[in-house]
Design brief:
mainly beta, Porin, eight-stranded antiparallel β-barrel, 1 helix, 64% strand
Length: 153
């Protein structure tokens, strides 16, 4: 019972101090279930941002992702969704196989973004980014969940 009360108090405390933040630039990392990399976001309007992610898939290669995102302010958070594209390559290496794939595709993304305290210029995000490859192992990829930590300025 004490643990339950403590958990409720912590969640309510976090809800009080979590804030949505407006910014011009944010630079940081995005750690995903299928690839991780560096992220740069730029505000292009009151509710619009563009994001570039240079990522390394966990199966060897490189990926460049560009996204347009629309932000919706909600009490203490920003909900966002967007679309974009990606280009890159990856290598499948198993026993005697050593295949390299080059791919081009489209992405969509939905997530939330927040900061813990206004005085600390760090942003946290949780998102989901499925994609579709037109070339090089064509088809849908429904993996793509990620968390982000960015410095805003």
């Amino acid at each position: 019972m004490k643990k339950l009360v403590l958990a409720i108090v912590l969640v309510l405390s976090a809800a009080i101090i979590i804030n949505a933040q407006d910014y011009n630039w944010a630079v940081g990392v995005r750690l995903g279930d299928d690839m991780s990399g560096f992220s740069v976001k730029k505000s292009i309007g009151d509710y619009d941002k563009i994001e570039a992610i240079v990522a390394v898939p966990y199966w060897h290669g490189a990926n460049l992702i560009g996204l347009y995102q629309r932000y919706i302010p909600i009490e203490g958070f920003h909900l966002y969704f967007g679309v974009g594209g990606h280009v890159g390559n990856w290598r499948y290496k198993h026993n005697d196989l050593n295949n390299r794939y080059y791919f081009l595709g489209v992405d969509c993304m939905v997530g939330i973004e927040f900061s813990i305290l206004r005085s600390i210029p760090l942003l946290f995000s949780i998102d989901y980014k499925p994609s579709y490859n037109f070339t090089g192992h064509a088809g849908f990829s429904f993996t793509g969940g990620g968390i982000g930590l960015r410095y805003r300025f």
